[in-house]
Structure of Helix-turn-helix transcriptional regulator:
Amino acid sequence: MQTGQDAAAIFVERWNEAASFEQTGTCPVRNVLDKIGDKWSMLIVMYLAAGPKRFNQLHREIPDISQKMLTQTLRDLQRDGLVARQVFDTKPPSVEYRLTTLGHSLIVPFGHLIDWANQSIPSINKARAVFDAAS
Amino acid sequence: MQTGQDAAAIFVERWNEAASFEQTGTCPVRNVLDKIGDKWSMLIVMYLAAGPKRFNQLHREIPDISQKMLTQTLRDLQRDGLVARQVFDTKPPSVEYRLTTLGHSLIVPFGHLIDWANQSIPSINKARAVFDAAS
DNA sequence: GCCATTGATTACCTGGAGGTAAGTGCATGC
DNA sequence: GCATGCACTTACCTCCAGGTAATCAATGGC
């Protein structure tokens, strides 16, 4: 709770700080949250948490992602230093993706969020049912 | 780490489960992540963490949100049971928003994420600089 | 020769999140 | 009698994340 309050203060502060930038929404916290909110980043991180994977291996395990989005999301993760890309000079060149130390460190706090989500889903669904019934 | 791995497994499982639905993206975990990823939900939760606030009070404290989005986001949070709305029958009717118990419980895991983000920003920026230099 | 696989890139298109601006009904202040 | 504040609602528009599909260059199997 205390940590939460502190975090809230920092969060709001940074957010406001970014708001004063105006030109670009370069709030560092928002920056991270955008990745978490996008459709594929966290899914890929979670798949890579199990160990390094090749491009098409990921593609097969996540059938509903397009090649374009897989490439693009991996690039973004690589750019942010969460994922490392390694090319092997085999006959048909193969590429391996693995989480970096930084990438692995995300799994812990993100895991807490997922745990919260899973625990809270019943309450949320109940609240929604009540809300929708009254409208 | 262990918790993280477990969370990852549950996450991926649920995600896939939702993928099998096909018709609607009703993955419960994605459902929660969408709120966290959207532009205003978490900012409002963080502002309300400090205590109950009135509509226009929030609007003044977050100047760059539109009335439309403030109303809409508050409604969504209310529907999910994260925020409670209380109407006072004063001469110009006033409305107060406060976090529910469920809403407060989000602050803890979300705070971990923010902490991670703040701690990791230097690494991320460095990684970006390196990546951008090599392209 | 034909086709598949590997890891991409590119052009084109759509849906929906979110912004802008105006309007609403009521009450108080000047 | 006009403006202001409160808590919205509505119509309209814009932008971009993400999807679809075609293409690429090299290689090995049939």
